[in-house]
Fold Phosphatase.
Amino acid sequence: DEQRGRGTPGLNFERVQPNTLDAVVVPKGYEQAVVIRWGDPVLPGAPKFNFDKQTAAGQAKQFGYNCDFAALLPTHGGNQLLVTNHEYTSETFMFKGYKTDNPTEEQVKIGWAAHGLSVVEVEQVRGSGRLKPVIGRQNRRITMTTPFKITGPAAGSDLLKTSVDPTGTVALGTLNNCAGGVTPWGTILSGEENFNQYWANAGQTAEPVKSRAARYGITSGATSRKWERFDKRFDMVQEPNEVNRFGYVIELDPHDPESMPVKHTALGRFKHECANIRVARDGRVVAYSGDDERFEYLYKFVSKNKMRKGNSRTARRYNMTLLDEGTLYVARFTGDSPPSEIDGTGKLPSDKRFDGSGEWIPLASGNRSFVPGMTAEEVYVFTRLAADKVGATKMDRPEDVEASPKTGKVYVALSNNVERGVTPGKESATEPNPRNNNKHGQVLELTEHDPLSLRFTWWLFLVCGDPNDPNTYFAGFPKDQVSPISSPDNVAFDQYGNLWISTDSANALGINDGLYGVPVDGPERGNLKLFLTVPRGAETCGPIVQERLITVCVQHPGEVDGASAEKPASHWPDGGDSQPRPSVVAVWKPGRHGPMKIGS
Ligand code: FEO
Ligand code: CA
Ligand code: CA
Ligand code: CA
């Protein structure tokens, strides 16, 4: 088995066996340690974390909840800046005695402070891969009250004006930041994903607000969080436009702690999983982003202006405007096999490939709309409605998207879709989404001649699941040798061009989530190897794969059915009878002279 792994630089490790342990499991010969946990200090004056005595003021200076995306950026003095998203809060796990129908104001405000992002300087311990947080000058917390500048063609639109902000240009806070990306100019992009869950009473609004809200899944009555009781901006009857200021890609310059982060309207408004940048030969930049919901779409943005080289503050300031002017596109996929050969089980069609071609359909460019019946501002703010009108392809939950720095091919994680071919009125299997009741997802490989191309070809690289299931596919690699995988979520590349995939919902296979490495080229293409698993109830997020260090975010450990702060299902990472805490973990391979190369 392991012989097949030899010869692929970066992937020479003994694969981890799937398990259900309440632990982070790494390959033999590797070590791991927590970098930072929910509640650990980020800013000066942060109180020591005390699960039973939390305060909103303390949380605003501490590491937030449910870390998802993470980035490590080089900084002065050899340390790195760890930038992390805090996607959402789970109050029943955060507080003992939490009453879902009657949260206290302090609990709600702790929730606001536990969302957002953290910027934390980290120092590598000499001779080890261990990373230690430092209360550095650039440390920062972004929360639900941090001002964001709204930029791009919809900034200042009537659709974005509220009673508190009649200019429609400054929003307070960011929500449900899921995955993200590091830009070539050293800033962070982060997607506001399931923002719909925070707004109440859409059912009592008038048209067209009501049907627009419905298309985004905004709650018709009270929310389960009850935030609307403590801030009227979460009540759509009182503030119908506040929700239109969420659902964007945000950009943060972590090197400048005083800078105001921005929300880029030109990339459209939907449940942005992420945004990842490629630079075209002429210097224009391209951003890919998935709308993570069942039957939603894949998008691409092409900038009008060209990137300025260098990491100076001036270059960064300029480059932070690149995502404000350009053209937004949505993907339409065409399969090359007869639809009759796509039977919904995942059985390969007669050409032995789920593959075909596709095109990027323009939605809007600057103030110009390409969608009949919609203004450009409407396209940017109600992008799902625009994509519906142009016949985009409904996908199985488009998650992270990343281009290989070696080959330029673009990889898209399509997480799962248990409603396909099951829920009445919903679409059945198509060649790019070839299984009905799709529990395990697929990874799509998209080939563009050039990042600016408006046409592409595509091929399903992985059709995930248990390799013993005949209707899974691992790029044609012998399936008796690969690791089982379900629900791909985040993707990353190592320096050798291997793809790394983290998962969210491997419990569909009865195993814990994990991080996998797989070659996308050469004789080992498709030889998927499990590198790490996370504790019970957690998902694996935000992988960073460096030459001698891997980090992952362990999100929502212990979040299994029936568990709560009274009945914790995990005691990771603190052990004993402690409460589980979402954390960032570093993994390395110790050697005589310090960490060795990963997979060497
Ligand atoms: Fe927050 Fe799409 O995962
Ligand atoms: Ca085909
Ligand atoms: Ca995700
Ligand atoms: Ca996820």
Notes: Helices lie at 56-59, 91-94, 105-114, 209-215, 313-319, 376-381, 383-389.
